[in-house]
Amino acid sequence: MRTETLELRLKAFRLPSFLAHYAPLAEQAAQGGWSHTHYLEELAAVEAVERAERRIARLLSESKLARDKTLATLDTARFPAPVRTQIARLAEGQFLEGATNLCVFGNPGTGKTHVVSALGHELVRQGRSVLFTPVSALVERLLEAKRDLRLSRELRRLDRIEWLILDDIGYVQHDRGEMEVLFALLAQRYERRSVAITSNLVFSKWDQIFQDPMTTAAAIDRVVHHSVILELNVKSYRAQAAHQRNRSARAGKDAKDDAS
Question: Which of 5, 53, 87, 205 is the most buried (most CB within 10 A)?
Answer without folding.
Answer: 87
